[in-house]
Design brief:
Shape: globular
Number of strands: 18
Helix content: 25-40%
CATH topology of the largest domain: Rossmann fold
CATH architecture of the largest domain: 3-Layer(aba) Sandwich
Radius of gyration: 21 Å
Largest sheet: 6 strands, antiparallel
Order of helices and strands: EHEEEEEEHEHHEHHEEHEEEEHEHEEHH
CATH class of the largest domain: Alpha Beta
Strand content: 15-25%
Number of helices: 11
Distance between the termini: 10 Å
């Protein structure tokens, strides 16, 4: 198959540093976490190697030219950062023959921001991690870090993701998807299905992350409220059976030079101050959560987890990076829980910690992700 003539249209000219647009914020419930991730990346990305342009997306969806001030994208006194509506608007047209991003200012002639060689989309959740932004970038012929449209969309929906894992033979725990039609037409049947899994269960939005909208339900009388809470974030809801045991995670990177994916050492989340690994436990300090990296595991179990992480990466046709979450149940069985195509990059995030323990520190990790994306054409591949 011949190469798309536009696939390398935005490759950096000789002698010019590649321009990296770091995109963050967004319309999802994980807006603040995206901002924190961006602040961390902006503080370490190699400015001698790359021309960096921060682009924020407000909660309403407006793209703005953001200040290159990483310290403003951190948590301060419990206050979460966000992207405001002030600032010059930025437009990326879905046209591979164009000249990159355009800056729009009231009363002024639109000006070109310049060609963008690669986008680093530090967006978590819907309208960013779910294939929508990836589709726009494919239309525009712009290379980007991370998985493409299909893998991003499939991994964003926990129900579809688990179905693909099961079809590939990966072990998963019992679950049920609750669609709007099912819940509106026959909630009693939903309750019966959930009861068949046994309590407690976890009720989650199908297409959200960072533990937003999640409830642990131990009493059937609380199921309806938990489903309604999840539905406030996503009309599609997933109910998962409780798995008693340990929570293990593993990072995956796309192989270099066409090689297969590489897995980090596994890490373990130990939650002592919460019933489960909720938003506060993940992102607010001193909340009774410990991250053990590497996890204290027998060598053969660690290798099994690393192999499964790479298999899950390939099952969804992922690119760039992913974090795969596992349960190690009380019998010693490894179960795949979910895969995140754009894991958090906050200072306390497990993904960079696992790669640091594997010999790739934070700046090196960011550099590798950007350079891998620069080498990969947009379009079919």
């Amino acid at each position: 198959m011949s190469e798309d003539p536009q696939s390398h249209a935005r490759a950096a000219a000789p002698g010019r540093k590649p321009r990296v647009a770091v995109v963050f914020g967004g319309r999802s419930s994980e807006h603040a976490i995206s901002c924190i991730s961006a602040g961390s990346v902006l503080s370490v990305i190699d400015r001698d190697a790359f021309d960096v342009v921060p682009i924020g997306i407000s909660r309403e969806g407006r793209w703005v030219l953001a200040a290159d001030e990483p310290e403003k994208l951190a948590i301060h006194g419990g206050t979460l950062p966000s992207v405001g509506d002030s600032g010059s608007s930025v437009l990326l047209a879905g046209d591979p023959t164009g000249n990159g991003m355009v800056v729009l200012e009231p009363g002024k002639v639109p000006r070109e921001l310049g060609a963008v060689d690669v986008v680093l989309p530090l967006l978590h959740g819907t309208y960013g991690e779910d294939g929508t932004l990836q589709g726009l970038l494919e239309l525009a012929g712009v290379s980007y870090v991370g998985s493409g449209v299909f893998a991003s969309a499939a991994a964003m929906d926990k129900g579809h993701m688990k179905a693909l894992f099961a079809a590939a033979g990966l072990p998963i725990g019992p679950y049920a998807v609750v669609t709007p039609r099912q819940w509106d037409a026959d909630p009693a049947a939903v309750r019966e299905t959930v009861a068949g899994m046994g309590y407690p269960v976890f009720v989650k939005p199908c297409r959200a992350g960072s533990s937003v909208g999640i409830s642990k339900v131990t009493d059937p009388a609380d199921l309806d409220a938990a489903i309604e809470l999840a539905r406030s974030h996503d009309p599609r809801v997933i109910v998962e059976a409780n798995v008693s045991g340990r929570e293990i995670e593993c990072g995956v990177l796309e192989g270099v030079g066409g090689a297969g994916p590489e897995a980090s050492v596994p890490g373990e989340i130990v939650v002592t101050g919460h019933e489960f690994y909720d938003f506060e436990a993940k992102y607010l300090p001193d909340e009774g959560t410990r991250l053990d990296v590497p996890a204290d595991l027998p060598d053969e179990v660690a290798e099994e987890i690393r192999a499964m992480a790479c298999q899950a990466f390939d099952v969804l046709s992922c690119e760039g990076l992913a974090r795969v979450d596992f349960f190690l149940d009380e019998s010693g069985r490894v179960l795949v829980n979910e895969l995140n195509t754009m894991p958090g990059f906050t200072p306390s995030s497990m993904f960079p910690l696992m790669w640091k323990a594997s010999g790739l520190d934070y700046p090196q990790l960011v550099d590798r992700l950007v350079r891998t994306a620069l080498e990969r054409p947009s379009g079919l591949r």
